[in-house]
Write a structure and sequence with these properties.
The protein has about 220 residues and is mainly alpha-helical. The protein has 2 domains: about 1-55; about 60-185, no CATH class. Helix content is about 65%, strand content about 10%. A two-stranded antiparallel sheet has the order 1-2. β1 and β2 (about 210-220) form a beta hairpin. α2 (about 60-70) runs antiparallel to α5.
């Protein structure tokens, strides 16, 4: 009798546990379903965004390209994906910077030399550094002649310096224009299908006149 009661109690306990587990699973099921739906929505949006990016053709914005090219030299070519132009752009800027620096240095050197030879202070004689070894001021026709040479040199290098600055600004403007044109014509069709055709045709010069033979030019865009 005691054993029978114990077995009955165990069976009742097991049945109660199974029922409670099923109830808990049913209560958790909606939450799991909501979580799965949210995950699916996020994944779907991500996949759609990736597909949209792949399908959308690249085309630079000319306005942004111009501003960035003006702020950072060469960045317009980067935005246009014209990376092969970067060595040309930066090589040109380096050349312009070298020209400005060289002409400025030479202008200052000859200007100081001219000022030193003009004044009456014997301690200021930087002009002697411009005379080759083994030669003197008299080798250039005397002091007055050497003064004229120094004055001409400093004026020439001043002119070259100013010209180098102007060319540098012009080259800077050219890089901006180049970036803008590339952005505007990025998707311009330059395929081999573009062709000019010349073919014979009949036309009427005037109303009521007979047909005349002529040539017709046509451009095939694709």
């Amino acid at each position: 009798m005691f054993v029978t009661r114990r077995i009955s109690f165990l069976l009742f306990f097991l049945i109660s546990f199974v029922v409670q587990a099923q109830v808990v699973d049913k209560k958790q099921l909606p939450n799991d379903t909501l979580k799965n739906k949210r995950v699916e929505k996020v994944l779907t949006k991500a996949i759609q965004a990736i597909d949209t990016t792949k399908l959308k053709p690249f085309r630079p914005d000319p306005g942004k390209v111009v501003w960035m090219a003006a702020i950072i030299p060469g960045f317009g070519q980067i935005m246009n994906h014209k990376y092969w132009k970067l060595p040309i752009v930066y090589g040109g800027f380096l050349g312009c910077a070298y020209a400005v620096s060289w002409n400025s240095t030479m202008y200052q050197t000859y200007l100081n030399a001219y000022r030193d030879i003009v004044d009456t202070d014997p301690a200021t004689n930087s002009y002697l550094l411009l005379i080759p070894k083994g030669r003197t001021v008299d080798s250039y026709g005397g002091t007055e002649s050497f003064k004229s040479i120094l004055n001409t040199k400093q004026e020439n290098y001043r002119r070259y310096r100013d010209l180098s600055v102007i060319l540098s600004v012009g080259y800077y403007a050219i890089t901006i224009i180049d970036a803008f044109v590339d952005a505007q014509l990025y998707d311009f069709d330059i395929s081999p299908d573009l062709s000019l055709r010349v073919q014979p045709t009949l036309f009427k010069p005037e109303v009521g006149s007979p047909n005349a033979l002529g040539l017709q030019c046509s451009i095939n865009l694709k």
